[in-house]
Amino acid sequence: MITPEEEIVIVDLSESLLQRHSADSNSRKNKLQELSSDAIEEFLAYQKNIPSEWWALLVGWELRQMWSLCGTYIVISIFNLMLSIVTQMFVGRHLGTMALAGASMATLEVQGFAFIVMLADQLLVMFMCSFESWYSLGIVLSSAYFANTTVSVASFAICINYLNLDLTFMLGMSTAAIIRVSTEIECANPRVARFSAMVVNATSILISIILSTIIIACGTTLGKAFIGDDEVIKAVSEFTPLLAISVFLNGVEPILSGVATGIGRPGLVVCFYACNYYLIGLTVGFALGFMTYLGVAGIWWGVILGFSLQTLVLVIVVATTDWDKEVDKAFDRLKQRADEEILA
């Protein structure tokens, strides 16, 4: 039951947040700029039944914050990745299957080596950013042990290129999730932090559904972009359903990892990565690949299993998070850090 005093507070907050409602686009843009995390935190705390148009305004504000953090990173990273992808396209179209397989393996090894450099900076950052890159490199190299080695490596590498392109996009959104959630937690805005996590996850899932649909619709076109060999194109088209599933999971797991890291649990995320991807995913993938008729597809099912387990665990972690307690923990960490600086 809302008391008269609380009702007055609700009205005041509503008016301060959503005053001068107008259909004019410039007016809406100004209102988005006027919103602040503290005001939205109070608004979400007191307002119970929020109209849909108010939700739209709040979601628009959050999307503006999110894309301002990750938009530039995504564009630059995709263009950098496109350099290697276009090179592989040129090699495959003009030099053939063998050259494409070799170029793909060399490119993945160079990308994997680049992540080693991160070790000198931050161990946890290196692990979280490079697990899937090293994982991709490992399974591409493993595909060379199957029959028709050249076709296996070339077709698998083509699919991994598409998967890495999607992963680059999602890592940008994951970075935005880390920054938004950690910032709001440290500013004592648990409801805004939770709202930010919901918006970025919903956005990434929507994008992943669209990308997965495009992959299924394209079919054989995915392989034709890299090579003209009918055998490789057929192999890539057979991997299309697995690629679509992986792209969809790619839109959930990295974002949840970002949210979990933002609330102060990076070590837990790294442990989950090691267990789900390497101990379980690789073990099952190699067992299916080398001990059954599935071959290269069996290794990919191991990848999907690793994705699924990691996603499931992170969903449980985020869903059971007490956001108010995370604010208290963040305050304690900041206080401890300040005390250490004073003593130093």
From TrEMBL:
Keywords associated with the record: Membrane, Transmembrane, Transmembrane helix
Keyword Transmembrane among UniProt keywords: yes
GO cellular component terms attached to this protein's record: membrane
Pfam families linked to this entry: MatE
GO molecular function: antiporter activity; xenobiotic transmembrane transporter activity
Transmembrane feature ranges: 66-86, 98-119, 199-222, 242-263, 270-293, 299-319
InterPro entries found in the cross-reference section: MATE_fam (IPR002528)
Protein family membership: Belongs to the multi antimicrobial extrusion (MATE) (TC 2.A.66.1) family.
Protein name per UniProt: Uncharacterized protein
Species: Coptis chinensis
